[in-house]
Design brief:
Length: 275
């Protein structure tokens, strides 16, 4: 009797790659379906049925949790980052006798890149993971099934308010982050680098315009959407009890940060192409 034939390593690797591709395709389809359902309940349903509007009370409550409770950490981190940017820029520009350009470097880096990026990463770690844990715990406790049984759509009831709150709160936090980063750069430049206060302010105003601020806000709006969608999607897909909730919460942070960085690359390349 012939022995069982062993599978070659090449075939095993190909099979593993095929499973990864199939899982990725299923994830993309499910996420796209969730996006369509969210768009329907958030923007179309309120115009069709009187009682299917957005739950603004819940959205405001989530907005307070996402925005107001995160202000302190956003302020502190971006203040320090602004100081670091000023010090690093000064050490380089000093060699060329262009210390006044420190203000330009800090203002542009904060409004275009660092402000939106750091704020989104902070919110992803703080609130995006919380979305996953909350919705995942509700699923494990069969509360989502109970909502469906009562005729309440989970997407409208749980996800739409969180997504709207995130898309509003993150741009507001980004504006605060921009200001605190520039303020930190000003404080260090005036006290350590010995730049004139008025000179720093004038160069900052010359360096940035409303277009730079709007670029950062556009990024932060999309970042907020990606964070909320990732948190809600991984929460609704939780399996495996408490261990599964913890695993999905960790994955929520990792996936959100990856999507933020990738989206930032796309935006940067787009803005570079149109300049």
């Amino acid at each position: 009797m012939a022995g069982k034939q062993e599978t070659s390593p090449g075939i095993e690797a190909l099979a593993a790659l095929g499973r990864v591709v199939m899982d990725a395709g299923a994830t993309i389809r499910n996420a796209a379906g969730l996006c369509r359902e969210m768009a329907y309940w958030g923007f179309l349903a309120p115009w069709k049925r009187e009682r299917s509007g957005v739950r603004w009370e819940s959205a405001i409550e989530q907005g307070v949790r996402v925005g107001w409770e995160a202000i302190f950490i956003v302020v502190i981190i971006n203040f320090f980052v602004g100081m670091i940017s000023a010090l690093q820029s000064a050490s380089l520009l000093k060699q060329f006798g262009q210390l006044l350009l420190v203000a330009n470097a800090v203002a542009l880096s904060m409004t275009r890149e660092l402000g939106p990026l750091l704020t989104a990463i902070i919110v992803a770690g703080r609130s995006g993971s919380a979305f996953t844990a909350e919705i995942g715990s509700m699923k494990m406790a069969e509360e989502i099934d109970a909502l469906t049984t009562m005729g309440l759509n989970p997407v409208r009831f749980l996800m739409v308010p969180r997504i709207l709150a995130m898309m509003i709160a993150v741009p507001i936090l980004t504006l605060i982050a921009d200001f605190m980063g520039i303020f930190g750069g000003w404080l260090l430049s005036v006290t350590v680098v010995d730049l004139g206060s008025w000179q720093y302010i004038r160069h900052t105003m010359d360096a940035i315009d409303m277009g730079d601020v709007m670029r950062g806000l556009t990024k932060s709006f999309v970042f907020g959407f990606l964070i909320a969608m990732t948190g809600c999607y991984l929460g609704i897909k939780v399996e495996g009890g408490a261990e599964g909730v913890g695993r999905s919460t960790t994955n929520s942070v990792v996936v959100s940060i990856f999507l933020i960085i990738f989206a930032n690359l796309v935006f940067t390349a787009f803005f570079y192409a149109i300049e």
